[in-house]
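Renewal narrative, Specific Aim 1. Our central claim is that a sequence can be written position by position from structural information alone. The example that follows is taken directly from our test logs and has not been curated for this report. It begins with the structure tokens describing the chain, in the order in which they were read.
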């Protein structure tokens, strides 16, 4: 669980995660929070909760990489510390891994259930554009590259060798999973989007940085595939 200035939601999301029958351990990486989140994190006494504090804010990718390095359970799920993604979806998210059919499962916001909170138009359009570009370059047909809900077998997590510190981590993970030839599944998840007044932090600058990463990591997959064929 990458966590940065989420004092309004961290207690609730931690209790939802701990209530899940799938939770063997919860690794929270606090990414230099200054809003009181750290104080909340120091209060949890469930032995499954392991908290790691980064001395300064480095970005979601940096927190995810640290969490991956600490993970020890058979399956690993990225869980944001806001309430946009709900652990009650883990049942369907983990099912292809548990069955042994998948190495990686993406929870897609493009195949939702009968009702959902309406997100920002441009955020979703931009996500679709990034996803399409990523698909063209990596050669795998995903519907939601930027989803937080990505579940992995531990072996996959350990193989990825990730470098990105910020939101480009989603593009990097996708390109490296595609390059690794891992079996990828998608499953529909719920998505309760938040707005800027409720703490939404991602900005158009992040959008541009993500675009650069989709392009950069996607191109490297394409070049590698062409090299193998030559
Ligand atoms: N924005 C941001 N989030 C971070 C950072 N480091 C860790 N995180 C955590 O990464 C997760 C994703 O961040 P969010 O700001 O929710 O990003 P998002 O879901 O793509 O976008 P919004 O929720 O719409 O802002 C959250 O759990 C954050 O607390 C950081 O430097 N910036
Ligand atoms: Mg969020």
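The sequence written for that structure reads:
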């Amino acid at each position: 669980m990458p966590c940065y200035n989420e004092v309004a939601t961290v207690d609730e999301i931690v209790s939802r995660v701990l209530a899940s029958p799938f939770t063997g351990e919860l690794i929270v990486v606090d990414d230099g929070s200054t809003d009181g989140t750290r104080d909340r994190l120091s209060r949890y006494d469930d032995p499954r909760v392991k908290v790691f504090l980064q001395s300064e804010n480095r970005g979601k990718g940096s927190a995810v990489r640290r969490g991956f390095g600490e993970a020890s359970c058979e399956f690993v799920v990225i869980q944001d510390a806001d309430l946009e993604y709900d652990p009650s979806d883990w049942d369907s998210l983990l099912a292809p891994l548990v069955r042994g059919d998948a190495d990686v499962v993406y929870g897609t916001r493009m195949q939702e259930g009968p009702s959902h909170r309406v997100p920002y138009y441009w955020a979703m359009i931009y996500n679709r554009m990034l996803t399409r570009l990523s698909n063209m370059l990596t050669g795998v047909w995903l519907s939601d590259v930027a989803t937080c809900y990505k579940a992995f077998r531990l072996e996959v997590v350990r193989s990825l060798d990730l470098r990105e510190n910020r939101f480009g981590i989603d593009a990097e993970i996708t390109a490296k999973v595609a390059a690794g030839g891992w079996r990828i599944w998608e499953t529909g998840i719920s998505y309760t989007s938040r707005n800027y007044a409720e703490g939404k932090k991602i900005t158009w600058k992040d959008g541009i940085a993500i675009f650069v990463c989709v392009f950069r990591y996607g191109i490297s997959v394409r070049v590698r595939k062409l090299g193998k064929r030559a």
